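Forum: Protein Structure Q&A
Topic: Joint prediction for protein chains with partners

I've read a bunch of threads here and the consensus seems to be that you should model interacting components together rather than docking separate models afterwards. I'd like to see that in practice. Below is the full input, 600 residues plus whatever partners are listed. Could one of the regulars post the assembled result?
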Amino acid sequence: MGRGLVALGLGAAAVAVMQASFNDYLLTLASIILINVMLTTSLSLTNGLTGLFSLGHPAFMTIGGYVAAILTYPARRKGFMMPELPEALAVQQWDLLPSLLVGGTAAALIAVLVGFPVLRLRGHYLAVATLGLIIIVKVLVNNMDGYTRGGLGLNGLPQLTNLWWVFGWTALSIIVCWRIKHSSLGRTMMALRENYMAAQCMGVSALGISLIAFVTGAFFAGVAGGLMAHLITVITPGTYSVVLAFNLVVMIVVGGNGSLTGAIVATVILSIASEALRPVEEALELYGLSQVILALCLILMLIYRPGGLFGSAEPALVRRWFTRRSP
Amino acid sequence: MSARSDRVSPVPSPVLDCRGVSKAFGGVQALQDFTLRVDPGALIGLIGPNGAGKTTAFNVLTGVLRPSAGRIFVAGTDLTGKRPHVFARHGVARTFQNIRLFPDMTVHENVMTGLHMRHGAGLAATVLGLPAFHRSEDRIAERAAELLGVLRLSDLIDVRAGDLAYGDQRRVEIARALATEPRVLLLDEPAAGLNPHESNALIGMIRRINGDMGIAVVLVEHDMRLVMELCQRIHVLDHGRELAVGTPAEVQDDPRVVEAYLGTSAKAAHRHA
Ligand SMILES: Nc1ncnc2c1ncn2[C@@H]1O[C@H](COP(=O)(O)OP(=O)(O)O)[C@@H](O)[C@H]1O
Ligand SMILES: [Mg+2]
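Posted by a regular:
Agreed with the consensus. Here's the joint model:
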């Protein structure tokens, strides 16, 4: 873990430098990119390591985001914005950390409910079920307007998230995913991906192991939703949609199925690229250009380098740096 | 577990007890009223022409397929209808006719996967990096290396399974199955595609597994020399039904068995004509 602490220290130093020298726009951008990293690394547990195909992250972000937003919302404005909120909740005004934890836990609980029936089945059931979940969550949030203000969304959230918060959670997400990947548990996930039937015959509970991957990912997505809501200070039922799920999947595929390094590198590059294309889109009035380019990246990658940038393994350099255990 | 020690009967309960099991695929009766009893330490052959239902029998005996009728007991516990990992936990291990390794993992990792069930750490210990986690990882890595050593596969330990030569894949698959610490090992055509030198090595390997490790073995195999040499008792299947049971000598001389084999080759010859 000594090497890990060094990496963490370097990351923290970089954050300190950015915090001191970046303007608000760049700070927000850096935070969004790091949140994306948190999303792809946690999604790669299912979609990369276990060989499942989940599109559920936007739904879990919406759940985690709304739960956290309701908990942190200034109590004096709650009566007006969320008239149906029970009295006990209406008087509360929580700090960010417990709100994020409750939001992440709520997302994880929903993941258990969805995953339990669906993860018994092999195939595209999870993709279809999580796609459905995105829509169900959106409809529910729209209709529970006494708590959520429906389609208007909740705005004016306290801006509690900063780069430090995002850095801490992203680091935690990477550490958790790294440890799971480089463990017996992670090997059983890979085994299910590599040969589903043989893995089960070796004593791997497909349901149990898939649930661990899916629910862990959902927890971090829920937290990411809360972080994002308190960064951009607004959340609506449509903020996190299928388009986001698509972008995350592309980043994971481009990075390499199951490679955390790949997911991180691809997420940073593709997030910066799509931000850089925004002024181009506006100048040329070609809205959606970055989506098209992202889709092209995906297709080219699948044709010329189907294993992604790094395949399923971490690059030797990264692996050696982190896995040597200090005595 | 306690039920077993309470037993007065001096006869040990069979590690695998399959009673009147049937399996149909649509209209095809792939397995009909199949009965097999495997005592601890036994070495049993299961033979029959192609399509006789041998692989189907293995699939039913490992929970990969649910039987349409009949019951399956593993070491005294009724596991009928349970999932494959439950069969593995109770001590049933297997290999596959069409090899099913984890190609993108090394030989060591393939074998370590088999050890997870009994020695792996849970999520909390893993994520928190608790001492229990490191102990479990060390134990798994050591045992896997040890097992590969016993099976004389140490040279291959860091090779990616997908890059192995065919014969080595078969042996590594056996090593991975043994990593689950089974009571009974089901081998589905382990000598298929091996050269005579390799199948001799395989005979030695099966003897060590059955003799030295004391693990019961059920062997599906077309190589009659191998079956006759190794097995104490042989079941013959044809069209999903049991045709004969007996010692290698009895089975070899059974006219029905001869006819089943000749019959299919005669039919095949007829088709080709
Ligand atoms: N999954 C399946 N679906 C449909 N038919 C099957 C399936 N598996 C096996 N069969 C049929 O069951 C019969 C027995 O097959 P199998 O058990 O593979 O025979 P063996 O291993 O003795 O060669 C064959 O007629 C085969 O076509
Ligand atoms: Mg077969």
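Chain B touches chain A through 43 residues (CB under 8 Å).
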